[in-house]
Queue: 2 jobs
Job 1
Amino acid sequence: MKKTNLLLLLLMNAGMLTHVAAEEIDVPLSGPAYEMADAAYKSYAKGDYAKAAEQAREAVRLRPDVARLKQLLTQAEASQKSQQQAIAAARKPASAATPANNPAYIAADKGYKAYNKKDYVAAIDHAQHAVRLAPANSAYWTLLINSQLAAQRFDEADQTVTQALQRFGPRSSFAQERVVVNQNLANAAGTQIYQALDKQNYAQAIDAAQRAVKYAPERRVYRLLLVQSLLGADRLDEASQALEPLLQKGNDPVALTWHGYIRQRQGQRAAATADFEQALALRGSMTTEDMVNLRLIIADADLYAGEPDAALKVLESLDGNAAVASRKRSAAELRLRQASQQQVVSSQAMPPPALRCRGEANAEVCGLMPGSPPPDPAYASADAAYKALASNDYSLALSQTRAALQKSPGNPAYQLLLVNILTRDKQLEAAEREATLAIDGGNRDPEMLAQRGRVREALGKKELAEQDYKNVLQLGTASVPLQINMLSRLHERKEASRRYNAAEEAGVFDGMPKVEQAYVAASAGESKRAFSLFDQADREGSLPAAAIPDTAYTALNARRDPDASRYFRRTVDAVDKGDITLTPQQLFETRRAIADIERTWGATASLNYRGASLQPGSGITPSGTNNSAQIGGEVYWRPFGYRSGRPIEIYASVFETVYNKNNAVTGAPTAQGGIGIRWKPFSETNFIMALQRQIKIGSASGDGDWIARLAYSNSFGTDLRVDQPSWWTGQIFGEVGRYIDNKQTYSVFEGQLGRTYRLDDINPKLTITPHVVIGSDFNSSLKLPADKTAIGMGPGVSMRYWFREDHYKAPQSYVDFSLQYRFKLSGDDRAEGVVFRTTLAY
């Protein structure tokens, strides 16, 4: 039996331990609650009811809103009580009713001891003997049933429960044992179904599925497996009858699709079309992948019925997919044949849509995939490759894909699959090589050419990548979404936007799931439209968890800060629940985005030594050759919030000189205040414009003046990283300012390059960065031209401690200590010497 089937059966076994007949579990479990519930189900299945009750109790504590956990706890406690009764009966001291030499008592005692040692075979033998000697003792019957279940001798347990119910009546405690036995019988039958289907032994599969449905009629998956088995045996009428309980609900897309298939096979094309349309109307209950598969299945039915226009209509919202392209080509070819031969209908029977189930928490979620003709020798390998890729098992996916290509050489879909797997596995050189071999060998799928371009772009081969993108556009066969993606990668955003809007107006995206439309819109640079589509999908319940981070970034690009923050927080929640997987660094960057978006104010305080090392933005002009130290601070407020990375800030600052080498005035008399406004007009470029009014505070400070400032900075690696212990760090900062009244101009520049090390042994939030620095300043007020500009360079080291974080936000504050020594390259002596800074950013 396949690995995926084993996983499904494990989850089915867990789900069958509930009284309530429900087709799907109401609330999905994840994280610790899921792990505890899963352990409880396994303990229950093994007959360890005490442990099962303990684990179920903890699961209920973690998720008190989930009814099935409470039901599991009730069942486990009831079974534990029955088991304890059996144990008590076996251990009961001799009395008039049960003397010490009572054979039944002795046999039961031995049975209990064997059960306690997990020797279930011996426990069964002793329990059977005890029941024969004392058939009126219900505890002995319970011991026998529990021993048979623990030994997985379910048929024997079935017979024993039946006999016990006949003796003690339907209202006895054995009614609960009947439920448990039926669940185990259904589970065993489920295993046999998959084993038979793997061997294409449909007769055995049907027999096992009928038994599974009999024992667990509430489990939708068993009824679906029964239908699949009947369809495999081409027993259409029986399959239709088996679907009836699901069809009566009217909201099961799998049942409706299969029913439409059966009707078409029976020559009822109009009725089949009605079933398919009803299934399509249930798009809100399906994932994007299931919806795509449904459209492919309906297109297959249209093609087998000789209706290419209908096939093209159902596929018109799907593009950029080899399976879709293949069916579109088939429809075009069928049109040509019909034009010359009036009517061409396939003489072959359409293969039945294939069932695919996956486990989610303690439920089974089933969908359909397009059926494939059994003769395809590569189908099994390709199917295994797709499943392995879905589970990120790249090694298995690669081996299975290569096996598929050996059996079906030159298959464009398998060639693209191979390149995609290599790309996902970061084997970019191999991916480029395989793509080139496929293209040179005649693969004309535009998606293959586009994928090679993406790989080349990742490899830094920009010119080759752009040529591939241009060639895709020149082919003339690329889908509209692929065209838009290529234009976006070529930075032709206006043309991408134009084609997107034209296609949307023409109805090209009609019927396409909103999530897919959103990705196309985002690729076209239509961020507002993309977010609207993502948000609509979320409100309709069709937004997959994996799309939540993309929705957050799209909201940010659309300048919807509150929505971006909300979806970023949901990203963190989805990671907590196990719905999506992010690397530690990706999660940290998500939390950093939340911290940045939600920040509305901040403050900095600094102590700077040497004239050439003034705090950027302080509004204090670099002095002459005097060594000095300044202390000061600033408070800022963002009245309009983050504005998607384009904040406007109102700020106030105070700086004063606390040390001067030449014994000039220091302290309070030098205090200089300032109040101003600054604006960052571009989200992706750290360019800032500011206008500041100086305020005279100390008697020795400058008179009030207006300062206009422009600043630019760029950096990498300056934030904390959690995915590696050390990383390269670099930053540049430049600022130019003009005193309006005094007609004085100044500028400050600094660049650093170093290696940051996280000091995990002390604190993972503490870093140290040895670096080299080059700094310069310009002061137009200095008299000698040679003194106006000073440039120095030298080594330095800085230490930074990050703090003030929470579950959703990355650290929002830090304290930084930096010590440098600069050697003069040009200018006066202020360019050399020790530079020391201490900064607190809150």
Job 2
Amino acid sequence: MHNKLENLMGKMGAFIYDNPLKVIVVVLILLAFPLSHVPQIKMDTSTEGFMHDDDPVLLEYNEFRAQFGRDERVIVALKSDDIFTLKFFETLKSMHDEIESTVPFVDDITSLYNVRNTRGDGDQLITDDLLEPFPTTQEEVNSIKERALASHFYKDLFISKDGKMTTMVIETDAYSHEGEKEVSDVDAFDEGFGDEVENTTEESKDRPFLTDKENAQLVSAVLAIVQKYKQEGIEMYMAGSPSVNHALKSQMQADMQKFMRITFLIILVFLFVMFRRASAVFYPLIVIILSLLATVGTMAWSGVAFKLPTQIVPSLLLAVSIGATVHILSIFFDKFNTTGEKREAIQYTLGHSGLAIAMTSVTTAIGVGSFSGSQVAPISDLGMFASLGVMISLFLTLTLLPALLSITKMKQKVKTEAGKLDRFMKRLAVIPVKHYRSIIALSAVLVVVALFAATKIELSHNPLKWFQPDSYDRVSTEVIDEALNGSVTIELIIDTQKENGWNDPVRLKKLNKLSKEMEQYVDNYTHIGKVVSLATIVNETNRALHENREEYYTIPDNADLVSQELLLFENSGSDDLEDVVDSQFSKARISIKLPWTDAVRATKVLGYVKEVATKTFPEDKVITTGMIPLLINTFSHAVSSSVTSYFIAFVGISLMMMFILGSVRIGLLSMIPNLTPIILGLLLMYYVRIPLDMFTLLIGSIAIGLAVDDTIHFLHNFRRYYLESGDSAKAIEQTFFTTGKAMVITTIVLSLGFYAYMMANMISVQNFGLLTGSVIILALLADLLLAPALMIVVAKRGWIK
């Protein structure tokens, strides 16, 4: 069977040599469609982009956004010892007005300039802006300072406890404006009419939410204004998930693009040094670039956006394509330099390695494709499109590359003596033959140590820690979290499932008690900084209607009085009520503010919020949503899905290895050098304190691809030479001279390319480069030392037939 397929590959090589232009034209025609869609590719770094459209957590979040608007806010903080001065207020007003009038997609902006100031004047309830009318004397400013620092609502939201930091909270539009018609006036008129508002909410479910591109425009515009005022000497910080996600996307894109170029340059130089031929330098790059563009074009055509995990796709395709093309080139030039016959060299190369390359690519596609069932949308996309890219690369390696070699004029370079690499491979081939027992024993010890170390690796999903410690975005978030007790929220929805359920003073008192209780929460990793809810408004209103006396900052006992106070607040001109309760007064929103927290460590606080809310309102429907729950959901899905994916990959690759090697026992044994580099990669992670996060979780997909490629090439050729000679030592030496050389060249090129990523700005990209480069080297060592050592044991037992 193997011989028939190899002969068929050889005949295909001869056909390509005889018809190179036809092959090139057909290939380009087939690629034209996906390549034409490349410009349409979109980028998405939103947290909700990590979930499938039918994910229950995302559906709850979408329902929340449709009802209450987007919970992701941009926070601009101004730090000064002189906040309560006329000069500072004028700066604040100027900046507030500039953001309001020039920044796109802003739904609302709140600062000390326009924050609600709920107070009573006799029997009248007044909710005007804090700086209305705008102060003209320092005495008026001092009066405002007294009110601001005494406010329960402002503290940790708009002013720090020490009065030295104030914020502008920018709420973004929930919905996208792409292609929308001007209907805002009608919507504004419809507000307040119960049934019609519900209908609007139903219709809005079909509207797309604010896009990643629009979010980027908004954040960039705010950042430009912040930079302008910073130049005037004001200490300013900018945080919030829209800002952090935008910075994450910008830096990661810049890093990935920069280091893909550096990697390409390293590959160019090294291929030229190894082969000393221009064709050996540029033809692999043509295969890589076309494979990558065809894959990206197919993603664009399918409407799939590029997300943070799918940025690994180019690196994976680069690794797989280089491996396959270098094997073809290494064997082709060895044969061509020996015979001088190009047709014979192409026929021999495809006959010798074509089947092995095809099998390695199919196996890699199975390994990576196992991720396509992931519950995390971009990891699923990675599995689907990376496996497609691998197959495109295979197709181009076996068709376009030989066709290009066929039409290229080249001179035979006759070897007069063995090259340095040949001499090195000859010396290396002796080691696994002489020391096979020691190699197997040492490998076993290292694997056991690595598995123990793997249990100590920290789980983490904290995109903020991907930035350098001195990064503006990381520093801003940490400063704001420290001064104002948080910059992100858990959103708690309590649905009474009946109209006017939240007019009940008993229920409101429970909510008030729950809010106070939650504000006391502290664990080893985080704490709840502030809780804002309907109870906040009722407390404020009740105090205002009782001569602004602090002892009346409480919930009234009488249901009619609660209804009356809420009606007075609603009619006073403030629209803040719609942020905390729906129009039917059946659903209440409780915003729980806390510092930016690692998603793994935030599970405890989320569990606490769910538990106390359910205990307090046992008969009501309790939903937790918002940024923190979304991050937790994403990472828990990523871990559980990846475990399943790696298991499927292991089973699929094992079956392929059994088929390729024609033996169940040898197929299972071959998984040892496949898995060893990945396991030793975990030891490296433990040693350099790299957490297991969304990025490092996916490095295994590249490691599987590369380790399997090398193992198949080695074992496939070893089996062929062993069956010819019956001598395992001679078979190892022959394998080292052919496939072994290609494996060494590929490893040096790729490891250098990936190690270049260690010079990136993003810590996650640095870790990616270090681990991937190291795992590539470990995969080579496993295939040049451990695999031959195992084959000697197998040969002695007579298992190779």
